[in-house]
Amino acid sequence: LRRTIGYFSGVNFIVGSIVGSGIFISPGGVLAYSCLNVGIALTIWAVCGLLSMLGALCYAELGSSLPSSGGEYYYIKRGLGSIPAFIFLWTLTVFIKPASIAAKALTFAEYAIQPFYPGCFAPELAKKSTAIAAVIILGTVNALSVKWATWIQNVFTVLKIIALAIIVIGGLVLLILGRTENLMNAFVGGVPNVSQIGEAFYQGIFAYGGWNVLNYVTEELKNPSKNIPRCIMIAVPCVIVFFLLVNISYLTVMTPREMMSSGMFFKIII
């Protein structure tokens, strides 16, 4: 394979894979399962980020030591043999990945076509058709050209970061102006039980999904032994800080109950 992915593209690849529909649909779910306790919800976001960072560092070591594409499939095959690797890959491609892609595509479609239907909900057929079209187009581009896929990834990553940066800056400005009523007494509220905490973590971990993507394209990465750890150690902490700031910004303009009813609560059943 041609090594066409450099350091900047590698960072964009990780950030673009993590920053997606999760940050738009998970905040309401984390708050709901945290019993509308803002402090607990923000703590869960931070701990989910820490867990993701620990996993990413393990993958950085694996990618540096075993510089072959394939991610978990290659590591399981190397360590346990072909049959466990095949079972893992079959489960991933038949059940897990399609469900995850479908959830992300439907979320994209929800936000993409809603402006064309002001004052009412967008038709379900239009949302599903848009989601299907997005999956087909992106799948075709990835199959035809790594260079084009990388370029599109970079462009959309920059656009997503700009959109979230606008949200963060707006929230920080409101905080400076004294809009802090939703963050005052952050830990006042209900206390979730063990089951609810598990559900909240599931919602948060979903939003951080994608920290392991660079290991799937190791053979297409320039100087993987150096770039994999460097990309991970830059990209994942930046995403953690960004997600926390975005959640704080959401809470400067909306109450927890408003966040739950604003479309930011998508029950993840993947």
Automatic annotation (TrEMBL):
It is found in: Membrane. Coiled coil: none annotated. The chain crosses the membrane at residues 6-26, 38-62, 74-96, 131-149, 155-177, 231-253. It comes from the Eukaryota. Keywords: Membrane, Transmembrane, Transmembrane helix. GO terms for molecular function: L-amino acid transmembrane transporter activity. It is a multi-pass membrane protein. GO terms for cellular component: membrane. InterPro entries: AA/rel_permease1 (IPR002293), AminoAcid_Transporter (IPR050598). PANTHER family: AMINO ACID TRANSPORTER, ASC-TYPE AMINO ACID TRANSPORTER 2. This is Solute carrier family 7 member 13. It comes from Latimeria chalumnae.
